[in-house]
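PT: before anyone asks, these are the final sequences, not the draft ones from last week. 519 residues across everything. Please model them as a single complex and drop the result in this thread when it's through.
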Amino acid sequence: MTESHKGWTGKFLAVVRYEILWNIRKKKFLGMLIVAFALATLALAGGHIASAITGEPVKANPDFVINANVGLGGFGFFLFAIVTTMNTISGEFESGTIVPLLAKPISRTTVFLGKLFAAFLTLLATYCFLVVYMTIGGYAIYGLQNNLHLVPLSLLGALFSTLIWIAMVLLLGTLSRSSLIAALGALGIWFGTTIIGSIIGA
Amino acid sequence: MESVIEATGLIKKYGSLVAVDKLDLNVKADTIHGFLGPNGAGKTTTIKVLVGLLKPDGGSVSVLGQELGWDKPDVRSRIGYMPELPKLPKHLKGRELLDIYGRMYGMTKEERGKQVPKLLDMVDLRERENDLIGQYSKGMQQRLGLAQALLGEPELVILDEPSLGLDPGGMVEVREIMKEMAKEGVTIFLSSHLLHEVQQVCTHITIINKGIAVASGTLKQISAKAKGPLTIEAEVDKLSKAVTEKVKELPFVTSVAEEGKKLSVEVKTRDDVRSEVSQAITAGGGVVISMNLKGESLEDIFMDLLAKHKRTKEVTK
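LR: through. Structure below.
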């Protein structure tokens, strides 16, 4: 890589812009966002639904927000990351758009880092939106909440674990040049590490 | 004249298949250099090596005086490249794409603000600049592909089949753009299947077959290399034996055949000797209605050189 520092920042930001515009215009991403929003709404409305069925008033749940956020930070956020990034690089190979991109005066490392950062920003915005929605909704429906100070920390934890997963998806996509292998590979590794982690934990 | 592209003994393999086999290529500055060859000759592979998309397996390549290595973005800032049937990101709008690519060239906001509309005007896409590329027709995507190759005022523009998918009007426009760029001192390396296009715009030509350069030089130099027989076909009124005899007397004529009003004269020289043949016909009492030189067009030369190369390969085997 022989790009000057000043030039590098501009080129890096160009890749970030290129990628964010792609992410937010992806039908898959928009679909996933709608599903996530619907699921979060369903989780929030769970108390009212149960109340309507049983006829009992909605019970206060001071741990709703922290439990919901920890739940989201697990498989939910992981799936979101996979859907957002599975074709970030491999999709460019599959469609052929990688050719004009790599012919530009920009190093492959910059392209990779720019795409990684753009995916991170996209997921950060999405997670923040979902977490804020769940927190306000939980507070409004289930009353005062415990451990609210841990919510930003759980968001940060989810983001960093996601970063590792998106880096893995991008790497698999770059090596295999296939979106399917990138997604299934990351999913396999996730299940593998989860199972091994549970066994060791037990 | 300074060399803009210099490849010596360039080799590129895909597994056991040798796509480019010790190719020597020399493209001089301020020329429009045509790169011709049949399908699978190694043209696109060579171009991908020149723009740094593929790593060569052997030989040396320098572009604009710099040795090509893996991932050297600085060299690419002086090169514009239009791939064959360019695949552009469909999620971006035409103007957005040029703006983002412009940033990748390190262009300032002001530079992009001037150049992007100018390029969109040039390829006649100004009215559709805010539409997603996915909504563009193939021809429009091709024109946008050309515009992105001209971003950042490159010194060398490499075009891989720029007229593919364009309507006749679009093809003429592309030719005019190439001529205009050449006037501004831009070197153009043009790979094309359209021999008449190459003949019309190129000052120099390299013909490649099975990864090997078969001939390189100006059209006249290449024509001399072809060495195939040149035939003059004339339509003659009052065609008689006397006319045929007069034509046969010319020192450069190897054979004469007549069929109705048509006279085919095979000559051993590659000089244009139509006036001499015409004079001989008139001297024999004939009247020339029309006269064509067959074997002089780039298509004839191209076919002749490829046939010659095939024969040489067979003999070598």
